[in-house]
Design goal:
Layout: H1 7-11, H2 32-42, E1 47-51, E2 54-57, H3 58-74, E3 82-86, H4 91-102, E4 106-109, H5 116-126, E5 130-134, H6 138-144, E6 152-156, H7 164-173, E7 188-190, H8 191-196, E8 214-220, E9 228-233, H9 234-247, E10 256-259, H10 266-278, E11 282-285, H11 294-301, E12 305-308, H12 310-317, E13 331-334, H13 341-353, E14 360-364, E15 374-375, E16 386-390, E17 395-399, E18 413-418, E19 425-426, H14 430-436, E20 437-439, E21 445-455, E22 461-466, E23 471-473, E24 476-478, H15 480-488, E25 493-503, E26 507-516, H16 524-537, E27 546-549, H17 563-569
Parallel strand pairs: 1-11, 3-4, 3-5, 4-8, 5-6, 6-7, 10-11, 10-12, 12-13, 13-14, 26-27
Antiparallel strand pairs: 1-2, 8-9, 9-19, 14-15, 15-16, 16-22, 17-18, 18-21, 20-21, 21-22, 23-24, 25-26
Helix pairs in contact: 3-4, 5-6, 9-10, 12-13
Length: 575
Amino acid sequence: MKSKLTKDELLRPWLKEYQDARPNLEYPSGSMVDALMAVSRKYPEYYAYEYFGKKITYRVFMKQIEDVAKALKNYGVDKDDRVTICMPSTPEAICTVYAVNLIGAVVSMIHPLSSEKEIENYVNQAESKFMVILDSCLEKALKIKRNTKLQKIIVASPDTSMPPFMHYLYKVTNYKKKIKIPKDDEDIVLWNHFIASAPDFVGVCHEARGANDLAVILYSGGTTGTPKGIMLSNLNFNSLALGAHEMIKQTIPGNSVLSLLPIFHGFGLAVCIHTPLISAMKCILIPQFDAKQFGDLIKRTKPNFIVGVPTLYEALLKQKLKSNDLECVEAVISGGDILTPELKKKVDEYLHDHGSYASVRPGFGLTEATAATCLTNEDGYIADGCIGIPFPDTYFKIVKIDSHENAPFGEDGEICISGPTVMMGYLNNELETNQTLRYHDDGKVWLHTGDVGCMTKEGIIIFKQRIKRIIISSGYNIYPSYIENVIVSHKDVLACTVIGVPHPYKGQVAKAYIVLKDGVEETSELKKEIQELCRKNISKYSLPKSYEYRKKLPTTLVGKVAFTKLEEENKNEEA
């Protein structure tokens, strides 16, 4: 006679799939930096990060964070203030994230390739008074500064923390790109001058914060494809880190992770930085990934753990490595986009042929749930689109589209998530928050992801497709509606539709279809104007790779643009 399933087993049919992982965990009551401090006290001489061969221990790392916190206090940053960080993954950026958290303020993360207009919008949404920015982005910041509440802009360079030889080499190779700092603008501060002020601070810079306090704002298209700020708490990050640690047994003290994904990306900050640091691992920081040098990077740094998007693993397959060059690699995680069965098979074979026993483990997440929510077991990949089982304390269910009604096992529906990694809400956007975070009859708040999938009777989640219009390019989200709005703002444009088209390396890139107003000629000058408008207002990575002008666009029976027909036209063509 079969025993009856408990209520929890009915809600979480995947419990039997957990292997060594615990289904329920205890989470810290404090902040992100509190959790990091606990690790540094336990493992002070373990390495926290490596940057171009320079290794820094947890003890020194905490001192660096405290110095940045003191400098921030000296420059007037207070509890609850917003500090925008527009940087790649450098020591200065990582230290600033935790320093801001230490003083009880909030970080707002921006992609350095964002356009002037996007930076202005993000700074104003967050109401940031302070910004730490990459030197090459300073010109954009100066142009938008008067339209914001920014009081200080702190300028950092990727070479600041490099070893002496690398620092010199960087200066020599980039001397033509040297950024001119306005001498008469007291609001612009170089990083070295900024950090030199730390000893001047007198007082306590550690501000106690709770698990549910706002810690980080990340920008994404949300579940509807319109860019917005996503508010994430200390608990969101700490529960993600502990959940990932529980699901991936290789996240152990002393191991290292190749932190290839940038910190302005939720996946990068949560999985490539906070998770390994909370596990007393070493983060190998890479400010800019070079696909051609991927193999040399692995041989030089010997990581135990690689996290990346599918295009990164496409690049791995092209590396010329020896049969034992990947012996160091113990775990390989893929997220940010769907890993096809064909690519997974090729990468698994490549890993095994070059000395690693690891196999790629696909996962799934979205920024609204702190970037990672479920993961396949090491031997748990069962089908195309398999994204595994939920993290501890995380609940998944599949509901029929446009409803709260559960779909049967095996039937497609919208993926909904409830658990400690689910966001606080969208910044200054109650309407979208209420549309995305919904109370169901079970009393839980469920995140409606806008993604279609199904669940097997064992509780394994299979991803199918996105409900929302979104383009995934090298793991980054591109939002067609945003690009369309920019192009349609041109006085001579009547209509525009943007779609994703196949690309051999990036997966997809954006293509714009444009209809001009009656009587407007399709001249080369006009085309240049529209492209310049895009360059000024759209992130470099989101820019359309091609523009096609038409007299009209295909429509559905109800008169909406049939973008799926345009996608079908481009299905077998590569950009």
